[in-house]
């Protein structure tokens, strides 16, 4: 059963109506401005500078921020939406002021020409400073508090002061200012504005530094978005200074400022979206994924057209009209691949790797290939799902117990958990539980992908469960066999061995109490010697079966005793096992038994003079035992004996392998590898 995050408080109707009205009004103003620009495209501009070529860029920027801001306000109560609306209106009124100024020049007598210039120079500044000084402080999971709130309020004050000063400026050659008449107050405003421009830049750098500190102390989930936001604001601060310098100096500085501003606004929008999509139930991802592609494509094409026409005009021998035709043809060829690339990037930004099922399956395949090919990689699969779909936690439960999990467990996970049944072949075997990041919800696309891939998770879980059962069965078999050997050791050492020794002693006492013939006495003596020898063999066999030191986990000492027991004047055994005691009890027993069998074969059957026992723990994991001797070796027609079969059985008990081959120079080499 899926448990949704509780929806946010619905904004009051008045607030939603205001946001909708501002969004619709901004869109209508942008459309009207575009119509005016098209109508006056062939008309001469005013005698004073208004930069009419920037109006399309201002309109595009307004359309990027306006709809998103209205959606955020309507669907939540976060102040970021209002900031977006202010930015959108700032850019839109700038473009509208430019268009109205050109229209008034072409048709004298229209009202509002004197107001158009103060509005257009103020709107652009307000939009830029809100982006630089106010917006970053609002990008918090909850409404800004503490220093973030104080800095946001201080940024608003700076914006109001800067906008008020800029609005009072009298542009040279423009109609007299409707408030100041272009007198002393306008001159003072001009001087103050020029002195404040470096201050705005320094304040922007201060915001960049604050974000850098916030990024260092933030959680990993936020660092990616904060990195983009940091780069975007740094670019915006540099672009602002470059543009202000370009307004005064013109030429290359001006073009560079335009390009940097366009790039900075796109970067800022992308970075802001990375952050706001993590906020509680803002529910803007699907809407933006359908509109952001078109807006980004439009902005990119407009910026590319302006830049390419300007560049060709600088280097090409033909006129501006021919340059425009060449650029239009080139952009027409680039539209389709550019749109596909933008679509892929936006979907990845909105939905993560899960936006592309093929990319998700590729990551899952890489996870399954990451580890031991003989074992199902359920843990790697779960971690790959968590990373690809950007989830807080993924957990697989079988028979009521957790068998694999990835991500951190939080106290409120239960309220945000989505449980999907694992139903291979229609039979329920467990549950796949996923938890979205704190404050987020699972969008329908992610849920659909999870349902589609749950079958693969079910198969991996079944394989993992079967593998775990097999491991437990193997361990149980080893334990049962070792218990049988312990019992046999006790019976041999404490039962049969002493019984044989006692019988030998009793028989040895017979001549003292009975009269025997010489032949019977000799026969009895041989029988006593044979019983004593067999009693010693039984004790030796008991010690070889399972040395007592193994019960205490001292494999190194057990191997040393093995070497000491078999070493003679004609046969020496060397042990190289510095890390033997690190193994667990089951592995120690199997290693000792195989080593003992190999050494015993070398001593009894190979005619060897030297034998070396080497135990290694490879870096990837597992155990490697190698026993070599310098005996006669293995013939080409030799058939495996009981000892070799016994060693292979013991290795197979733990899922290992054993090979008996000829040594490099002469003799035999026994190699056992355990997982």
Descriptive account of the structure:
The chain is built from 19 helices and 9 strands. It is rod-shaped and about 155 Å long. Helix 18 (585-604) links the parallel strand 5 (572-576) and strand 6 (610-616). It has 4 domains: 13-283, Rhopdopsin 7-helix transmembrane proteins; 285-355; 358-476, GAF domain (Beta-Lactamase), CATH 3.30.450.40; 554-675, Histidine kinase-like ATPase, C-terminal domain (Heat Shock Protein 90), CATH 3.30.565. It is of the alpha+beta class and 675 residues long. It is 66% helix and 8% strand. It has a 5-stranded mixed sheet, with helices on one face. The chain has helices at 13-39, 55-75, 79-106, 113-138, 146-167, 184-217, 220-249, 252-276, 285-315, 320-351, 357-368, 378-388, 413-416, 444-508, 510-513, 518-545, 555-566, 585-604, 642-653; strands at residues 393-398, 401-407, 418-422, 430-435, 572-576, 610-616, 623-629, 657-662, 668-674.
Descriptive key words:
9 strands; 19 helices; 4 domains; alpha+beta; Rhopdopsin 7-helix transmembrane proteins; 675 residues; 5-stranded mixed beta sheet; Beta-Lactamase
SSE sequence, one letter per element:
HHHHHHHHHHHHEEHEEHHHHEHEEHEE
What's the overall geometry?
rod-shaped
In angstroms, what is the radius of gyration? 42 Å
- The CATH topology of the largest domain is given as Rhopdopsin 7-helix transmembrane proteins
What's the number of domains?
A: 4
Mean pLDDT: 76
End-to-end separation in angstroms reads 40 Å
What class, by secondary structure content? alpha+beta
């Amino acid at each position: 059963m899926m448990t949704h995050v509780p929806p946010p408080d619905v904004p009051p109707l008045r607030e939603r109506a205001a946001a909708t009205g501002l969004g619709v009004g901004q869109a209508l103003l942008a459309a009207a401005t575009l119509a005016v620009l098209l109508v006056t495209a062939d008309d001469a501009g005013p005698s004073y500078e208004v930069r009419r070529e920037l109006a399309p860029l201002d309109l595009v920027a307004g359309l990027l921020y306006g709809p998103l801001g209205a959606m955020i306000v309507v669907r939540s109560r976060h102040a970021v939406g209002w900031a977006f609306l202010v930015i959108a209106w700032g850019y839109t009124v700038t473009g509208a002021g430019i268009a109205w100024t050109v229209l008034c020049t072409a048709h004298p007598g229209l009202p509002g020409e004197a107001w158009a210039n103060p509005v257009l120079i103020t709107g652009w500044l307000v939009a830029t400073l809100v982006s630089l000084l106010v917006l970053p402080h609002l990008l918090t999971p909850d409404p800004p508090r503490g220093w973030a709130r104080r800095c946001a309020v201080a940024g608003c004050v700076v914006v109001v002061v800067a906008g008020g000063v800029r609005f009072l400026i009298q542009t040279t050659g423009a109609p007299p200012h409707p408030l100041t008449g272009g007198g002393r107050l306008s001159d003072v405003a001009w001087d103050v504005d020029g002195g404040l421009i470096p201050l705005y830049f320094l304040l922007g750098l201060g915001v960049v530094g604050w974000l850098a500190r916030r990024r260092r102390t933030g959680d990993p989930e936020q660092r990616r978005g904060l990195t983009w936001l940091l780069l975007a604001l740094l670019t915006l601060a540099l672009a602002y200074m470059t543009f202000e310098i370009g307004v005064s100096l013109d030429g290359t500085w001006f073009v560079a400022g335009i390009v940097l501003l366009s790039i900075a606004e796109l970067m800022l929008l992308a970075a802001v979206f990375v952050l706001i999509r993590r906020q509680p139930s803002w529910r803007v991802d699907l809407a933006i994924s359908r509109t952001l592609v078109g807006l980004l494509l439009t902005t990119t094409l407009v910026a590319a057209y302006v830049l390419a026409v300007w560049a060709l005009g600088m280097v090409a021998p033909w006129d501006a009209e021919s340059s425009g035709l060449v650029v239009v043809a080139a952009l027409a060829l680039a539209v389709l691949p550019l749109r596909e690339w933008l679509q892929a990037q936006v979907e990845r930004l909105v939905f993560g790797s899960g936006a592309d099922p093929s990319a998700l399956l590729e990551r899952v395949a890489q996870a399954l290939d990451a580890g031991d090919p003989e074992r199902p990689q359920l843990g790697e699969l779960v971690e790959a799902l968590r990373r690809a779909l950007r989830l807080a936690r993924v957990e697989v439960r079988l028979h009521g117990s957790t068998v694999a999990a990835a991500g951190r467990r939080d106290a409120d996970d239960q309220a945000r958990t989505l449980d999907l049944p694992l139903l291979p072949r229609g039979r329920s075997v467990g549950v796949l539980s996923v938890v979205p990041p704190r404050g987020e919800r699972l969008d329908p696309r992610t849920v659909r992908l999870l349902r589609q891939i749950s079958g693969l998770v079910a198969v991996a879980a079944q394989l993992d469960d079967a593998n775990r059962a097999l491991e437990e069965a193997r361990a149980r078999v080893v334990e049962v066999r070792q218990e049988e050997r312990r019992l046999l050791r006790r019976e041999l050492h404490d039962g049969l061995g002493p019984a044989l020794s006692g019988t030998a002693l009793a028989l040895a006492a017979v001549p003292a109490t009975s009269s025997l013939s010489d032949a019977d006495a000799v026969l009895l003596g041989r029988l006593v010697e044979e019983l004593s020898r067999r009693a010693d063999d039984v004790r030796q066999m008991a010690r070889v079966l399972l040395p007592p030191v193994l019960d205490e986990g001292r494999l190194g000492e057990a191997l040393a005793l093995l070497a000491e027991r078999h070493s003679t004047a004609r046969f020496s055994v060397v042990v190289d096992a510095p890390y033997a005691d690190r193994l667990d009890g089951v592995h120690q027993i199997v290693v000792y038994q195989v080593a003992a069998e190999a050494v015993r074969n070398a001593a009894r059957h190979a005619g060897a003079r030297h034998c070396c026992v080497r135990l290694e723990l490879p870096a990837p994991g597992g155990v490697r035992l190698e026993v070599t001797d310098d005996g006669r070796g293995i013939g080409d027609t030799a058939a495996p004996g009981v000892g070799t079969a016994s060693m292979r059985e013991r290795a197979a008990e733990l899922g290992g392998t054993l090979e008996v081959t000829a040594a490099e120079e002469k003799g035999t080499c026994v190699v056992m590898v355990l997982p």
